[in-house]
Input
Amino acid sequence: MGKDTLQYIYSTEEMEEVSKFISKKFGNYDMVMSEQKSEGPRIDIAIIEPTKKRNYYTLCTIGLGAYMMNIDEETSPLAHERIELLIYLPPDWPVSPESFNDENYYWPVRLLKSTARIPFYEDSFLTFGHTVSNSEEETYAANTDKAGAILLSPFPDPLEPVTYQLSSDKEIEFLQVFPVTQDEMSFRKTFGADALIARLEDTKKASGIKKWVDFALSRMVPASLD
Output
């Protein structure tokens, strides 16, 4: 694309600030999946391990926010120019280089990375309520019925924005990638994002789950596709 990738990389100071915010907001991390080569923003992934307080994995991109997205202000006046994305995994999810050789375990990481690439490759933007779908409209892996995702705010409140302003005046919004089924994707196309979020809330209540994070984790359990 002929774009200078150096302009899509955090400065050393910005990287330190983003890393400290992620640690404070979502949990400390020691493991990072680093990209060696990248066209556009370099997107590493911080792997925040389960704790007593947060008994789940949090995978959060680091680097996407260095890229300023091309926002359509007429349709999305509240969208932020810079974002980082995260996804949640159950505490027993296999997280290792070996397990990620299996698409049944790697697909959430692939979903996170592919979603993060959309603004750069499509010269567009992502914001709250946007949805993405698997390119072939198939499930992401053989053991899941999820074929798309909607962008929400991080937990505990998926409707409450989470932003952080760097000392360089760049403001970054953090959004979670919440996997959905093909049926839910079709519902979103017909009725819109607000209707889908309301439907997800109804599904959560019907399942007897109180917390959104528990609802998200339950949806990562392998599904029968027979």
